[in-house]
Amino acid sequence: MGSEQRFDVTTLGETLLRLSVPAGVRLETARRLDLAPAGAEANVVAALARLRRRCAWVGGLPRNPLGRFAANHLRMAGVDLGRVVWTEGRMGLFFVELSGPPRPAQVLYDRTGSSAAGLGPREVDWDFLLDSRLLHLTGITPALSAACRELAAEAVRRARAAGVAVSFDVNYREKLWAAGEARATLEPLVREADLLFCSRPDAGRVFGLQGRPEQMADELRARTQADTVVLTLGEAGALALDGEGPRREEARPVRIVDRIGAGDALAAGVIHGWLENDLARGLRYGVTLAALALAQHGDMLVTSPGELDSLSKGSDPDVDR
After folding, report:
1. pTM value > 0.90
2. φ, ψ dihedrals at 303, nearest 5°
3. Catalytic residue among 80, 169, 242, 264
C-alpha cells in the first residue's frame, strides 16, 4: 500500500434483494411486492459514499438481472464495485412485513446457497480490499456459511497484519444462528476490532452482559482491542466509550416509516465522524442518520453532506424553503 489509501472505507459481505409488502399487509395475502437492494455492509458504505467518502464493496453477485440491479444501486450511491465476484449462482432474498405495535416488523429469509454465501478467501482481491483506512465487517457474514466464516476470520487477520483499522458490527441475527454459536465465532473477531458496534439486546443475547449501558460498554471494551465501543440503545439513542470516557447521544424525534436499516445508518454516521477523529460529532451524525433511515423506505439511506450537517445541528424539521 502507498502512503495514501485508495479508499476511506471498504467492506465485505452479502448484498440481497428486499421484497416488502405495504405497511399493514401480510405476505400471505399480498398482491404486490416492492423491490430494493439491502445488506448491512452495503447499507453502511452506500450511506458513506453519499457523504462523499471513498468506499468499496466486495462480495458475490449472480451474473443476471437481479445481481445487476443490486450493483446498479450501489454504483448510484457512489460505491466502487471494481472487485465484485460475479458468479452463476443465485441472489439472496428476504421478505419484509412492515407493521406497528403490537407486532414487530417480520423478516423471512431466502438466502441459502447465494452467490455471497459461497464466497471464500481465495476469491477476494485482498490488495484491493485492504487499500483502505478502515475495513468494516459485521457478524452477519460468518453466519451465512462455513466458507463465509473462514472469509471473515481471514479478513480480520489480513487487516491486522496490514495495519488497516477494523470496524465490526455484531449484528446478531437469531434466524441465521443460535446465540451460543454466534458467541463462539464472534468473540475472536471482535477481540481484533478497533471500532466495535453492538446493540444493547445483542450484548445480552450474545455476550451475556447485563447492567447499565455504561457498564455493558465498559465490559465490551475490556474484552476487545477496541479503542471505541458504540452501544446502540434504540429509542434511547446511543452510547460511545473510548479512552476519554463515555458519551451519550439521545435519539432524534422521528415519525417511523420503515424500521429496517437504522442501525447501519447509525454505524455510517459514527464512522463518518471517526474518520475525522471526532467521535462526539460521529455520534451526533449517527443518531441523525438513524432517524433519517427510519423516516425513509428501504434499507439504503439516501442523504447528502449538506442535509446531514443541517439536521445534526437541529435545523427546523418542518419545511426547508
Report:
1. yes
2. -155, -170
3. 264
